[in-house]
Amino acid sequence: MIKLLLGLLKGALLGGAIGYGAYAAGLDGGLLWPLYGLAGALVGLVAGTPLWKLITDKNATSWVSVLKALFGFGVGCGLYALVGRVWGGFELTLSFLEDKPRLVQHWQPVFAASIGGFLGAFFEIDDAIGGDDSKAKAGAAKPAAAKVPAGTPKRGA
Question: In terms of pLDDT, which residue wins out, 148 or 61?
Fold first, then answer.
């Protein structure tokens, strides 16, 4: 439960920061799908087992983070397309930013934070499930040395 909340928080903060940067820069329209893909990719590099931990670990491969980043990019672009094209979007009014209602996928900080939070929670839970099992298997993989009774003759003697 703690990992779920931690992943949700990390992803939402990173996605919200990227979304706010795009909002402040005035990015809108056709540039939003790579923005949400970038938010998902960066969350994939940070959430779960982060890239810098995989690089320093001699027994791990850094391809895990690369695959998570590619998956996050695809999910970010896919969720934008799903909300924008399939559902048609839904209106959201945030009076402290503007008075007119806008579609939620065009509020970059809100939508990027929701994509980041979703992916962060998913990657943290995925890492927690796979992490405990691999440690248990590593300990069970070492066979115990067979004890030979003292009076048993050795082979080849």
Answer: 61
Cβ-Cβ contacts under 8 Å for 93 (sequence gap 6 or more)? 99, 100, 101, 102
Give the CA count within 13 Å in the CB-facing half-sphere of 33: 11
Q: Is residue 69 part of a domain?
A: yes
Is residue 141 domain-resident? no
Q: How confident is the model at residue 54 (pLDDT cuts 50, 70, 90)?
A: confident
Strand runs (DSSP E) across 19-148, as ranges?
A: 91-92, 102-103
Q: Is residue 42 part of a domain?
A: yes
Q: How many domains does the chain have?
A: 1
Q: Is 71 exposed, middle or buried (0-12, 13-18, 19+ CB in 10 A)?
A: middle
In a domain, 85, yes or no: yes
- Residue-wise pLDDT tens digits, 63-98: 888 888 899 999 988 888 888 777 666 555 555 556
66: number of CA atoms within 13 Å, CB side? 5
Which domain, by its residues, includes 38?
2-132
Amino acid at 144: A
